Amino acid sequence: AHFLPGDIDSDDPAVRDLCKIDGDTSLDEIVCPLVLLITRLCLGDDDAKTRIRQWLVPEDLDRTHPLEKRADLLGRCLRLLASVYHSRLKDSMGEMLYAMCDSNATTLAGYFGYGNVAGFLFHKGVVSAPPVSATSGAPPTTASGLPINPITGTVEHPSENIDMTDEEKEHEAEKLFVLFDRLEKTGALPPSQNPYRKAFQEGKMG
Predict the structure, then answer these.
(1) 3-class DSSP state for residue 155?
(2) What is the percentage of the chain residues whose pLDDT exceeds 70?
(3) Which long-range contacts (CB under 8 A, 24 or more apart) does 24-32 make?
(4) Do 92 and 39 contact (CB within 8 A), yes or no?
(5) pLDDT tens for residues 102-129?
(6) Is 147 helix (H, G, I), strand (E, B) or coil?
(7) Fewer CB in a 10 Å sphere around the end CB: N or C, the chain?
């Protein structure tokens, strides 16, 4: 929390400034050893793995808002998965979450949403969303019984035909843009396949 206060982006220059103030070092050097220790703990002790997972993503986790925008440890971990500057920590964090989820791609995507872990899984050779499995261990619904969207990891609302205002349409478009931009930055989506980038290049937007 000291180096990543609130919901700050891990690539924000302020984060690097804080590291330099505390000893002219980097977030990779400060946090990686701890992340690697937790990873080894998850790989070597099933009880510890279960407890750490329940602590990070408890059954009663509030999934009504984007997980990657949370101002807690879970939000910081997921934002690091999309980091461009802290590449070593990004990889280590992915391996930690993967170990925490039984080294299973379906379980990982089930807990955190495929959109948040797509880049990590792409480098693992998983190039598309893994199929939802009842045996993966990841919760298909919240503690209150609401279905969880497998892409976002948040509550999936029933589809309704609702007339949206221009402002609401713009807001939804912005959310899609952020998702595609994150997938492109993490390497899960080639720039040539980003529909927003293609639309800009063809002059269909802005």
Answers:
(1) strand
(2) 91
(3) 26/86, 27/3, 27/86, 27/89, 28/86, 28/87, 28/88, 28/89, 30/3, 31/3, 31/89, 32/88, 32/89, 32/92
(4) yes
(5) 999 999 999 999 999 999 998 888 877 7
(6) strand
(7) C
